[in-house]
Amino acid sequence: xxxxxxxxxxxxxxxxxxxxxxxxxxxxxxxxxxxxxxxxxxxxxxxxxxxxxxxxxxxxxxxxxxxxxxxxxxxxxxxxxxxxxxxxxxxxxxxxxxxxxxxxxxxxxxxxxxxxxxxxxxxxxxxxxxxxxxxxxxxxxxxxxxxxxxxxxxxxxxxxxxxxxxxxxxxxxxxxxxxxxxxxxxxxxxxxxxxxxxxxxxxxxxxxxxxxxxxxxxxxxxxxxxxxxxxxxxxxxxxxxxxxxxxxxxxxxxx
Length: 255
Description:
- The chain is built from 9 helices and 10 strands.
- It has helices spanning 11-15, 31-53, 67-74, 101-108, 129-141, 170-174, 203-207, 219-228, 239-245; strands spanning 25-27, 56-60, 83-87, 89-91, 118-120, 149-152, 181-185, 197-201, 212-217, 250-254.
- The chain is 33% helix and 17% strand.
């Protein structure tokens, strides 16, 4: 079985805008085929971790694209009580609010036997975004790391996680010495909507994961991936940061 290791490049290299080789796009015939294959891959990563250390940890993104994957993974016969799951990023809204990634994950992944896994959310009732980030960072630090699998998405604006172009906090999120969870204030756009205050895993937290998946669907996302895989400023397309330091990530696309 392939071993998933970060390349030797530092996160500082990615943040500077330097690009190494980029991952090749892996094409699937349909979203359901993508979900089935990646559920296999994640199950192997999780079970390998449990066999080695008794516990596994994963970080999952929100958005419509990964819902089939999460449902497929949740149906697998995994030792779920020994799995911890957290979010890659979250809007600074409670789980009851529209747009909550936690609510999305509870409706798609934390169902049935998978609901017995330990879920660690990012949102809290802290009085400020910075306070919530500090609390979330402490919770994520309690998980076994590096993550055994991380699922990312990508926006047409070139963001992944909540690393938005030109966002307040982007440089901190991409710094080599960043906390595991950082606060970000994005510039309002069609992509962000009204929820510009975000909590996100840092590049450091994502880049050392044993398995990193970038999940894409549709012609527009394919064109965007091809565009952002090329050289260019990271601050204009922050997905370039993870592409630079993890050319071994699984960039998976379906029509």
